[in-house]
Sequence to fold (106 residues):
Amino acid sequence: MAAAILSGCGDDRPEWMQDAWEHDVDQKRWQESRDYMKVATAGLWLERLQEEDKLSLDKPVEDMEPEAKQLAACIDGALKHSKVSLRSDGVSHYAAMCVSLLGYGA
Fold:
């Protein structure tokens, strides 16, 4: 699932997803990002999971902003307790864990 979160791309995103990080996001980049960028990136990850039928949310991506906010907050919380600086695969692991914890995984 972690690989699915960081692969793929899209052009026709809703306004709230326009500032998503397209490529790998390590812990430093995530933590230095503004909240709207984190939400946009979390939304992008939800979109990619939905495209791969790995998401239980039954709604269009443009309506997933509340879930993207919850996912970004979960990732923030998980990274806050990290004792080491994580590369993108580590952040992806936490994102996948949060998707599962929030009940969004298929």
Notes: The chain has five helices and no strands. The chain has a mean pLDDT of 83. Residues 74 and 101 are 9 Å apart (CA to CA). The longest helix spans residues 35-51.
